[in-house]
Design a protein that fits this description.
The complex is a heterodimer of chains A (233) and B (140).
Chain A: H1 3-31, H2 39-53, H3 58-70, H4 72-78, H5 80-85, H6 87-118, H7 123-130, H8 136-146, H9 150-174, H10 180-202, H11 204-232
Helix pairs in contact in A: 1-2, 1-3, 6-7, 6-10, 6-11, 7-9, 8-9, 8-11, 9-10, 10-11
Chain B: H1 3-16, H2 18-39, H3 45-58, H4 68-76, H5 78-86, H6 98-139
The chains are: A mainly alpha (233), B mainly alpha (140).
């Protein structure tokens, strides 16, 4: 088969396969809503199996599907709508949110550093792990600033999102949380984009608080990263 | 057609068409990226776009109805946009062994700690604010 036709076929096949597998995984999840059957876990596993079967590399795959990832850009802009709708709650309780963002960010950095050191992970890998708690564009900026590898951080971010969204469900079961705000902050801080998507399913207020927390955490850390890089040197 | 009629028909179209709303969100995101690129800001363009839309909504320059259904669609399908990024694991087979398990452990325990601490911090301060707010209200 000529290379041009092969490329054309791939650029139709992979986006279609990704969307198709996602829609199927979503149906499965609606039928059996367990955190282990989250579309963010099931769909990549199926697609990885497919890529291995067809002997396709990540470079070949992402070349034709990166526009799907790029849609995270307008999706982030779209969060202005739920944030605006919750403006009364946010205006009233902003000190609680601000406190959560600061305490959460500090815990994220310190726990990643501590746990990595405990398991004798060091160097750039440890630094790449420290930035994994922020949503992808922020995480990659912070990772580069403090001396990590942005590409590795991007993988850790996704793993954090998948794990965090599943963990969040378990944690909500036994933490005595009175407010929708705390539930939203839990998902926004611990599992960024994937957590926000999950929080959106739980409730409107949870979803918009989660998105706000995610954006604030990213901003605060991008601003503090240059300072942190001096500390880590 | 007068300018006013055109403005009205554009407005009506924006209120009904989710596709047009998504197109507008993409346009705003691209504008944000351009600003970041021009001014060399350390912030993602999408965040600039988000704040820009908040300002437009807050000052009443844009009606929330003109964005709501498009925004809702993008947010509902957000998980799809993460999936291709996960396949990066294909390039990092070194994570399939002990190192992968260690990293998994760091992320698992790290995320658990972060979530518990954050949720409790927000919930406790929320309760304090509620209590303070109530006694404050009663004092008047």
């Amino acid at each position: 088969m000529p290379a041009a036709i092969e490329t054309l076929l791939a650029s139709i096949f992979w986006p279609a396969a990704t969307i198709g597998v996602y829609l199927a995984a979503r149906q499965v999840y609606r039928r059996w809503p367990s955190p282990w059957l989250s579309p963010l876990l099931v769909a990549p596993v199926v697609l990885i199996a497919l890529a291995l079967l067809l002997k396709q590399s990540y470079a070949q795959y992402i070349h034709v599907t990166h526009w799907l990832v790029a849609m995270l850009g307008p999706a982030t802009v779209a969060f202005a709508v739920p944030i605006y709708e919750q403006r009364a709650t946010i205006r009233r309780y902003w000190p609680a949110l601000a406190f959560g963002v600061v305490v959460g960010s500090a815990t994220a950095m310190v726990s990643a550093w501590g746990l990595a050191s405990l398991l004798s992970i060091d160097g750039t890998l440890r630094l790449s792990l420290m930035a994994r708690s922020f949503s992808t564009p922020f995480a990659m900026t912070v990772s580069k600033d403090i001396g990590g590898v942005p590409d590795l951080t991007a993988i850790f971010v996704v793993v954090t999102g998948v794990l965090g969204a599943a963990l969040g469900d378990l944690l909500m079961g036994f933490l005595p949380l009175k407010s929708a705000m705390a539930r939203g902050a839990l998902f926004g801080m611990g599992a960024h984009g994937a957590g926000v998507a999950r929080a959106n399913e739980i409730g409107r207020e949870e979803g918009s608080i989660a998105s706000l927390v995610m954006v604030l955490v990213g901003l605060v850390n991008v601003l503090f990263a240059p300072l942190l890089s001096i500390l880590l040197r | 057609m007068s300018t006013r009629q055109i403005t009205l028909s554009v407005r009506r179209m924006m209120h009904v068409s989710a596709v047009m709303q998504i197109a507008l969100l993409i346009l705003i995101w691209q504008a944000g990226e351009a600003i970041v690129h021009l001014l060399d800001l350390p912030v993602p363009g999408s965040v600039i776009g988000l704040f820009f839309v908040l300002v437009l909504l807050g000052t009443g320059r844009i009606n929330i109805v003109s964005l709501r259904s498009g925004a809702k669609f993008l947010l509902a399908e957000m998980l799809l946009f993460f999936i291709p990024a996960v396949l990066a694991v294909l390039d990092h087979r070194e994570f399939l062994g002990l190192l992968g398990l260690k990293i998994f452990a760091v992320i698992l325990f790290g995320a658990t700690t972060v979530m518990i601490v954050t949720a409790l911090a927000v919930d406790i301060s929320y309760r304090l604010m509620m209590r303070f707010g109530e006694s404050h209200a009663r004092g008047h």
